[in-house]
């Protein structure tokens, strides 16, 4: 089982705290799929304001976590020379559904699949779970671009 910890993910992505949301990546099938973990904590940066008396992880951050997991999968799978000096940018979200609120303290599991790629453009789908309950799902696209 391939397992990347947060430090290894940090080496693949340009994101830094507090915006680096993905804590682990495992069950990696190069360029095809992976499972990510986001530990949603009571001390997570968004909890103070969203919402103070009823904390919920914002849906947009669930989509961001999907994107980070997909970018880490792609970066891990590509030859390092192909990925060096590149960034992955979200291009669009075709569909996102938020089925249940993600409440701290929980372990959010993201199941990511690459649907297709065409050159530097990739399309992904993902499902988010807490325990066995589906919390959200989405389909999105991203592109790999040169760092400027």
Q: Work out the count of structural domains.
A: 1
Q: In percent, how helical is the residue content?
A: 10-25%
Q: How large is the share of residues in beta strands?
A: 35-45%
Structural class: alpha+beta
Q: Quote the CATH topology.
A: Thiol Ester Dehydrase, Chain A
Q: Report mean pLDDT, rounded to a whole number.
A: 94
Query: Distance between the terminal alpha carbons, to the nearest Å?
Result: 35 Å
At CATH level 2, the architecture is: Roll
Strand order in the largest sheet: 1-2-3-5-6-7-4
Q: SSE string, helix = H, strand = E?
A: EHEEHHEEEE
Query: Rough shape?
Result: globular
- The low-confidence runs, each spanning 5 or more residues with pLDDT under 50, are none
For the CA atoms, what is the radius of gyration?
15 Å
User: CATH superfamily membership, which one?
Assistant: Hotdog Thioesterase
Largest sheet: 7 strands, antiparallel
Task: Give the CATH class.
Answer: Alpha Beta
Q: Count the beta strands.
A: 7
Counted by DSSP, the helix tally is: 3
List the helices and strands and how they pair.
Elements (H helix, E strand, L loop, with lengths): L2 E2 L1 H7 L11 E6 L3 E8 L18 H19 L2 H4 L2 E13 L7 E13 L2 E10 L2 E14 L2
Antiparallel strand pairs: 1-2, 2-3, 3-5, 4-7, 5-6, 6-7
